């Protein structure tokens, strides 16, 4: 007897309900929106408690920080100035710069708003919120992406596995994060503060806390570029600054190159001794050297002027830095002093490059009949130029903002009656110093610093992008 057996129905294996199986088919926007409202809520929906706690800690810390630093339970009508915490009052102060100046009463000065302090606190609050916003976006995207992966059949992942994977894949970013945060508050914050001051009326005629600083838009820029006296001063000083930077860079590089090539010659004896001697100007602090040269070229007591009179080269003492009829004399002395201070850097730099040029290059050139000048032109210069060009650009930027040599040598003199708060040898950076520290024109000084930043930044970016050594990095 034959019996017919009915095949058993296949048993479907149940998918394991791992830590991420919460509501299969849930739209990714739901956990994403939840994390947008409360950081970590989306991760909690996805059943990742560890990640949820991580993101929620930042959210809770932000809320607690705001409430604890504010006055939300004062029982009065809420105002950002009186009741706001760190973030609310900081943003309010940044946008308004205060609403109540200090006033003299019978009992003394009242407690008012300091616009500059409010601006600084507002920038700190804004940058802190920007960093927290990165964490918020991270929480939203993580919740939505993880839910999308689950809906596509992806494998569930525990919070511990996620953080292990994050540590392995993003270790470099994690290690750099503290430095980045420090960079934001130590470098970006002062730059932003200086930019914002350029759009205010913060000056000696309007100093807080007695007076409130106000936003004035582009009024300060119009003063610099439209008012004839300011515009002519700016154009003349900018022109001299560019001339100074070009000549100072070219002369120091040419002198350093020449001396390095001479010392690399086999005919020079005791080259190490000569290098040590020529490095001395670089070893001495530039401020000390500038003050020494200032004393030497003092028109009234300096030995140089006295020697010229004693040798009957001049009939009277030469006032190198104070004669308003000969501003180019002070400029020439400043360039010579800068040459003395700057050529050892390029001498040492070029000397190191020359020491690494293979000797067989020159042997092959001599076999082909190339003389010393041809070897220098077709072998030495291309190799040196390829290595040194980025540093030449950086040297130009340094000379463009070479505060020390000009200020400690000439103090910007001689005086120029046609300039506003500047002398004939002043660079933009020394003029900026005089505007802010000596004359307390902080708004105009901020405009100048912004102009300097744009000019130097543009020149540096353009030239570095055209350099092969940079393009090949």
From TrEMBL:
<dbReference type="InterPro" id="IPR000515">
    <property type="entry name" value="MetI-like"/>
</dbReference>
<dbReference type="InterPro" id="IPR035906">
    <property type="entry name" value="MetI-like_sf"/>
</dbReference>
<keyword id="KW-1133">Transmembrane helix</keyword>
<keyword id="KW-0762">Sugar transport</keyword>
<keyword id="KW-1003">Cell membrane</keyword>
<feature type="domain" description="ABC transmembrane type-1">
    <location>
        <begin position="238"/>
        <end position="463"/>
    </location>
</feature>
<feature type="transmembrane region" description="Helical">
    <location>
        <begin position="332"/>
        <end position="357"/>
    </location>
</feature>
<comment type="function">
    <text>Part of the ABC transporter complex MalEFGK involved in maltose/maltodextrin import. Probably responsible for the translocation of the substrate across the membrane.</text>
</comment>
<feature type="transmembrane region" description="Helical">
    <location>
        <begin position="276"/>
        <end position="297"/>
    </location>
</feature>
<feature type="transmembrane region" description="Helical">
    <location>
        <begin position="52"/>
        <end position="74"/>
    </location>
</feature>
<dbReference type="Pfam" id="PF00528">
    <property type="entry name" value="BPD_transp_1"/>
</dbReference>
<feature type="transmembrane region" description="Helical">
    <location>
        <begin position="170"/>
        <end position="200"/>
    </location>
</feature>
<keyword id="KW-0472">Membrane</keyword>
<comment type="similarity">
    <text>Belongs to the binding-protein-dependent transport system permease family. MalFG subfamily.</text>
</comment>
<keyword id="KW-0812">Transmembrane</keyword>
<feature type="transmembrane region" description="Helical">
    <location>
        <begin position="237"/>
        <end position="264"/>
    </location>
</feature>
<feature type="transmembrane region" description="Helical">
    <location>
        <begin position="118"/>
        <end position="140"/>
    </location>
</feature>
<keyword id="KW-0813">Transport</keyword>
<feature type="region of interest" description="Disordered">
    <location>
        <begin position="1"/>
        <end position="25"/>
    </location>
</feature>
<protein>
    <recommendedName>
        <fullName>Maltose/maltodextrin transport system permease protein</fullName>
    </recommendedName>
</protein>
<feature type="compositionally biased region" description="Low complexity">
    <location>
        <begin position="7"/>
        <end position="19"/>
    </location>
</feature>
<feature type="transmembrane region" description="Helical">
    <location>
        <begin position="441"/>
        <end position="464"/>
    </location>
</feature>
<feature type="transmembrane region" description="Helical">
    <location>
        <begin position="387"/>
        <end position="409"/>
    </location>
</feature>
